[in-house]
Every structure is written in C-alpha cells, then in structure tokens.
C-alpha cells in the first residue's frame, strides 16, 4: 500500500511538471523542440535525484550512528 502511494505521488508530481512544460511550449507556439523534449525527460527524472539525496542522508546517519556505538 505504501509503495503504491509513493508511485502515485511520483506520477502526479511528474505529470504536473510535464503539463506545465507542455503548456509553456503551447503558449509560446514552439511545439515539441529538442529542448522541450529534454525538459519532459527531466520532469520524469528529477524526483529520482531527490530520492538519492534522501537515501544518502539516511545511509550517512546510519553509518554515523554505527561508528559511535561501543564495539
């Protein structure tokens, strides 16, 4: 259940970012350019970088806690 909620949230955020990117192109009458396509791909990938930062912080906190524990 938790995984489904995370995937749904990820999809909603990515879809909202993609919609804004497409609306920007529509408003500028640009169509689908190479830069717009790169922006759409970035909309799908940016939450992964956030996930990596969160995982990195968790691992560093865990390693710090383990290194301070008595042996």
Explained architecture:
Helices cover 86% and strands 0% of the residues. The protein contains two helices and no strands. The radius of gyration is 19 Å and the shape is elongated. The mean pLDDT is 85.
Secondary-structure map with pairings?
Layout: H1 2-27, H2 34-68
Helix pairs in contact: 1-2
The main pleated sheet reads as: none
Radius of gyration: 19 Å
On the 0 to 100 scale, the average pLDDT is 85
Instruction: List the total number of helices.
Output: 2
Distance between the termini: 38 Å
Roughly what percent helix?
over 70%
Keywords:
71 residues; mainly alpha; 2 helices; 86% helix
Q: Outline of this structure?
A:
By secondary structure, the chain is an all-alpha fold. It contains two helices and no strands.
């Amino acid at each position: 259940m938790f995984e489904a909620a995370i995937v749904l949230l990820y999809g909603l955020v990515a879809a909202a970012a993609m919609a804004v990117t497409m609306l920007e192109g529509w408003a500028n009458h640009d169509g689908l350019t190479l830069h717009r396509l790169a922006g759409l791909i970035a909309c799908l990938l940016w939450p992964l970088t956030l996930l990596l930062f969160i995982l990195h912080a968790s691992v560093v906190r865990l390693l710090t806690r383990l290194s301070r524990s008595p042996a």
